[in-house]
Amino acid sequence: MRKLLLFGLAIITLASCNTKPARYTQNSPEIDVVKKHMANYNSKNYDTSIYADSSKTFLNTKKNAMTPSEAMEYHKQTDANYSSRGFKAEDQEYEMVVTDDGETWVNCWLDWKGTLAGTGQEIEIPVHLTYRFVEGKVVRELGYWNPTEIVLALQKIEAQKNSSEEEEKL
């Protein structure tokens, strides 16, 4: 009986030592990479070092992927619309998951705030970004947000600009 009890304890001990990698976590090297990427975005440091050469970025689309350099150029071009912009420091959520297929993804839910250069109007938008990692590098980036408020405000600025130009011609 004593041998059976010791054998059972040994099996339990060995079974408890069999640790599997975390399938979900809120702390990982990949999350740290994404947080650094967000800090770079906020400081307008357009660094592509987190991306694999073959990485594809999709922002509010499933088509027309951008390369890392094209994604940074996209951000530079849209920056012209804002006197300030960036992700807010509070209420950011990050998680890393390993899918059933063994893919590593970092998801983040952030609040973005921008001030339009043309009017001083402040706009806040919730944003969801997700990054697939392979060997420590981003191979796929997906970003989703509702741009309607920004589009309407920029259209209004453009309409006022065109109206002013027409008045000057008259």
TrEMBL record:
Q: Which domain of life is it from?
A: Bacteria
List the Gene3D superfamilies hit by this protein, alphabetically: 3.10.450.50
The protein's matches in InterPro entries, at most eight in alphabetical order, are given as:
NTF2-like_dom_sf
Q: What is this protein called?
A: Nuclear transport factor 2 family protein
Recorded source organism is Ulvibacterium marinum
